[in-house]
Amino acid sequence: MNISIVTVGKLKEKYLKQGIDEYLKRLSAYAKINIIELPDEKAPENLSAVEMTQIKQKEGARILAKISDDTHVIALAIQGKMKTSEELASTLDQLATYGKSKLAFVIGGSLGLSEEVMKRANESLSFSKMTFPHQLMRLILVEQVYRAFRIVRGEPYHK
């Protein structure tokens, strides 16, 4: 399975890079993982609704340009469906079983994802009702994808 993580914003924190690199190394036994970092739009503190939409649309256009038509897209969004680790594992297993070898997880910038990206997504996934920094979300996502592959293979993993 080829998995892309399309994410807005650069990862600056060394400790997050180290954690992500560790899980990417572990995941290499199960899937090809490609992280695509896209630049975020500069956003001042007090934005109007129109300005927020414009920023999300610009970031969304960059995201959509990186996703091929034959890719199954899972958007990470607070309003998405919450799943257990076992349910995520089942989702990944079913995608592989039914020939969906290209999968993209999409992580938006600080304002979230554009309407266009949400429409393109085959499903949306929420890890929590809480808001997480997109950099931290990247680490949480790769850990959960790794956990999902371990679950699918029936291999032990810390609960």
TrEMBL record:
Positions of transmembrane segments: none
Tell me which UniProt keywords the record has, alphabetically: Cytoplasm, Methyltransferase, rRNA processing, S-adenosyl-L-methionine, Transferase
Q: Which residues bind S-adenosyl-L-methionine?
A: L76, G108, F127, S128, K129, M130, T131, F132
UniProt-listed Enzyme Commission number(s): 2.1.1.177
One MF term from GO for this chain?
A: rRNA (pseudouridine-N3-)-methyltransferase activity
Keyword Transit peptide in record: no
Reactions catalysed, semicolon-separated, are: pseudouridine(1915) in 23S rRNA + S-adenosyl-L-methionine = N(3)-methylpseudouridine(1915) in 23S rRNA + S-adenosyl-L-homocysteine + H(+)
Task: Look up the domain of life of the source.
Answer: Bacteria
Report one GO cellular component: cytoplasm
Q: Which InterPro entries match?
A: Alpha/beta_knot_MTases, RlmH-like, tRNA_m1G_MTases_N
Compartments, record wording: Cytoplasm
Indicate the quaternary assembly: Homodimer.
Q: What does this protein do, in the record's words?
A: Specifically methylates the pseudouridine at position 1915 (m3Psi1915) in 23S rRNA.
Protein's name according to its UniProt entry: Ribosomal RNA large subunit methyltransferase H
Species of the source:
Oikeobacillus pervagus
